[in-house]
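Sanity check

After download, print the first record. It should look like this:
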Amino acid sequence: ALWLAAAVEVHTAREVVAVNGTNQRLKCTFSSSSPVSQQLSVSWNFQPEDLSAHEPVFYYLKEPYKPPSGRFKERVTWDGNIERNDVSIIIWNLQPSDNGTFTCQVANWPDVYGTIGEVRLRVVQKVSFSEIHFLAVAIGSASVLMIIVVTLVIICRQRRRKARDRRLEVADGER
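Expected structure tokens:
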């Protein structure tokens, strides 16, 4: 008989851009056909852009374990919630040397096999003017313009009303 092998599915952002010197949350969530077990383990690893050796970043088994050495020692924090299938971490004080690919692997017994989530991190000196920024400026400008137009319409109506009231008073006074 063939056993159907269930697998853990891991979900991450494909690419994250962060500014040099800031902190960045690397989001990783998972789904499993089995309930979360006490043997659930999470491994975060790093592959630098120069394709040198993989480096361990973080490990979780019943509790979070920070790396005892390496470039991420004292720079990584657990930010996940196992009950919500979230196994995210935060990398502190990002540097250009942190450019590379982070992998998130989850094993949830009996679902020990599955996809490995990958996040490509790019650390930049400053944020470029992206489409999102352009959209935010456009929406903000349109909102300010609408407020100005509405204010002008209200002022014009009030002036017309006052002029009409004056004409009526003058006409009543002449009678």
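If your output differs, re-run the checksum step. Summary of this record's structure: The helical segments are 131-174.
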